[in-house]
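Forum > Structural Biology > Help requests

Title: Can anyone predict the 3D structure of Protein-export membrane protein SecG?

Hi all, first post here. I have the sequence for Protein-export membrane protein SecG but no way to get a structure on my laptop. I'd be grateful if someone could post the structure tokens.
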Amino acid sequence: MNLLIIAGIVCLLVTGLLSGAFTTGDQQRGNFYAESKVNRTSKRKAANWFFLAGVLLLAVGGAVHLLLR
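Reply #1:
Sure, ran it for you. Structure tokens for Protein-export membrane protein SecG below:
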């Protein structure tokens, strides 16, 4: 149960790192122009999958937590 919740949080943190959510506007602009379109697309695709996995893991961990209480 706790492992599922921790894995979900880690997946959401990885999503934030891949999407550039923890950078300033100037850093995001610099990263945008320094990366190729293919690289941006692959990072966005990976971030979407990590987000989906994180949400599902948190949902399953929450459901298990509620059922075992």
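Residues 2-68 form one domain. The chain has a mean pLDDT of 94.
Shout if anything looks off.
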